[in-house]
Amino acid sequence: SGYLPKLRNALEKFGVPELLLNFVSTKGKGGETLKIIPQARGALSALRGQPFFIPLYNLFLTYGGIFRLNFGPKSFLIVSDPAIAKHILKDNSKAYSKGILAEILEFVMGTGLIPADGEVWRVRRRAVVPALHQKYVAAMIGLFVSATDRLCKKLDAAASDGEDVEMESLFSRLTLDVIGKAVFNYDFDSLENDTGIVDVDVFTIMYIYPFQAVYTVLREAEDRSVSPIPVWNIPVWKDISPRQRKVSEALNLINNILDDLIAICKRMVEEEELQFHEEYMNEQDPSILHFLLASGDDVSSKQLRDDLMTMLIAGHETSAAVLTWTFFLLSKEPGVMAKLQSEVDSVLGDRFPTIEDMKKLKYTTRVINESLRLYPQPPVLIRRSLQDDMLGEYPITRGEDIFISVWNLHHCPNHWINAEKFDPERWPLDGPNPNESNQNFSYLPFGGGPRKCLGDMFATFETVVAVAMLVQRFDFQMAIGAPPVEMTTGATIHTTEGLLMTVTRRTKRLIIPTLEMKLATSVKVEADDSLK
Ligand code: HEM
Q: Which atom of ligand 1 is nearest to the CA of 382?
């Protein structure tokens, strides 16, 4: 009896006008009315000129937790209902692939963990997840501290000179430096290089600032995800377009760097005495790459490179965006900032954070949780149905492209009290950290089900350390005359014109302690049981 609505849904997907569709009966055998997914109408012009998830939010308020949106010849299902999101991501996750996302990211991630599906994904997830064990994450705290300390030195200089700082690009550099070391022990050193991130030439990318290659590739991935026509696939265009040539130069450069790093690491693994075991870690080089090679990963494989590239991208702009929007939110809520600074002062005093502090910085963690609610990165999750299925009460066919709007779930006025308010205490400080399981898929900062982010604890600690160290030493205000902070979107939510802030040293003089890079190996990290 699900056949007719399925047919009707399928016809609707191909843009058959409603008038004709009405000839397809929606009555089941017993005369009951079968459900047809509501179709959003008349709002397409609204999609232009603002980040696409904003009009999707307005349509959600009109059409509800699942609706269809036809966009030219393309048709999408927009899901904003927690139960349906849970069904797709967790309960029936095998029936869904990454669809369009895999197509867009293929040029940079190949079959890396984010785009991969099926057996490739299963095998690689099993290989990579163990690399992010507790001892590794604990060791990363030292890395977060030293990178943030370098950022603090830059801010110190700006504060002395009375210069305003554009925080978004600094956060992007901070998290690039962190993820390069964490994933394959490479120092991009982007915080130390003061060039602008925008369009540099190939020469600069190749010989002066390799980190620019990462930005060239990232911008391309973002442009491709919002471009209606895939010009990059047109054979001649690929070769003659200067921009496409620059992208391939940048990709070549990153791949060469990766090949070199893999070779160097392989030699280290061969020379070391360490036996491989569950919590294996080389203290000089705790990187994920080192773990993977020691565990017997195939060095020559393109798959290894794809996975490294995937983690580089996955762990870079996401964390940067979280920091950017957190500081924006804090600038609007001085009361939250005051509480945050008071927690940081009482837990840390003048010293650097350690792994033990991660449990104690409860309010700081809630600030990150709440920032991720208001600005989820990425704001939508993409899937494609591999078989017919039921979404709630609606039958769907194979081949549907689906956007799960995390933005809508996180802003739903029926679910959240004062949904738009930045209120870190909406989750009790002595309660569990909010995650998709304990929030019944109304809150999905790291996705959910088998494809959940494997860097969630890494990213939480990274952002908690950065926020704590920054507010420990500085006060932040929007700069006078700063451009308005508006959103634009690629893979993550960016500002349109940066986040220009005035940074001042806290009046309480702090004695900056010497950096202790000792790895906190004996301490157990309090793991979130839903993680792995
Ligand atoms: C997947 C968010 C940091 C590696 C995901 C997904 C989300 C997410 C929502 C699920 C995507 C989907 O279901 O389609 C974030 C956020 C981060 C962050 C908000 C920072 C605040 C990181 C870091 C790493 C990482 C630091 C690496 C160390 C990955 C990988 C996947 C993933 C490999 C794919 C997992 C799979 O499909 O099996 N991330 N992530 N992420 N993330 Fe993260």
A: 14
> Residues in the chain, how many?
532
Q: How high is the pLDDT of residue 313?
A: 92
Instruction: Return the HEC string of 191-217.
Output: CCCCCCCCCCCHHHHHHHCCHHHHHHH
Residues 137-189 pLDDT 10s: 999 999 999 999 999 999 999 999 999 999 999 999 999 999 999 999 998 88
Residue 28 has which token pair?
């089941």
SS3 (DSSP) at 390: strand
Tell me the pLDDT tens digit for each residue of 21-61.
665 556 555 665 668 999 997 555 666 678 889 999 999 99
**CA 530–ligand 1 middle distance (angstroms):** 15
Q: pTM for this structure?
A: 0.89
End-to-end CA distance of the chain: 39
Note the Cα 373 to chain centre separation in Å: 13
According to DSSP, the β-strands at 380-385 and 401-405 are: antiparallel
Ligand 1 centre from 349 Cα, in Å? Answer: 32
For the packed helices 302-314 and 118-128, what is the interaxial angle rounded to 10 degrees? 70
Which atom of ligand 1 is closest in space to residue 112's alpha carbon?
33
Residue nearest to atom 2 of ligand 1 (CA): 446
pLDDT: which is higher, 20 or 95: 95
Place of tokens 């700069």: 479
316: left (phi over 0), alpha (psi -120 to 50) or beta: alpha
**Which atom of ligand 1 is found nearest the CA of 460?**
21
CA distances from 457 to 134, 369, 487, 528 (A): 9, 12, 26, 8
Distance CA 370, CA 505 (A): 26
Could you tell which of 181, 453, 460 is best to mutate to test the pocket of ligand 1, judged by most ligand atoms within 8 Å of the CB?
Answer: 453
| 258 Cβ contact partners less than 8 Å away, ≥ 6 residues apart | 184, 305, 308, 309
Residues 6+ apart with CB under 8 A from 243: 220
Taking the C-alpha atoms of residue 11 and residue 103, their distance in angstroms, rounded to an integer, is 24
Q: What atom of ligand 1 comes closest to residue 321's alpha carbon?
A: 21
Work out whether the CA dihedral 313, 318, 319, 320 comes out positive or negative: positive
How crowded is residue 58: how many other Cβ atoms within 10 Å of its Cβ?
13
- SS3 for 164? coil
Residue 453 marked in a binding site: yes
- The phi, psi pair for 22, rounded to 5°, reads -65, -15
| Contact present, 294 and 280 (Cβ < 8 Å) | yes
Distance separating alpha carbons of residues 215 and 86, to the nearest angstrom: 33
Residues with a CB atom less than 6 Å from ligand 1: 113-114, 125, 310-311, 314-315, 318-319, 322, 377, 381, 445-447, 451, 453-455, 458-459
Q: Does residue 445 have a cis bond before it (omega within 30 degrees)?
A: no
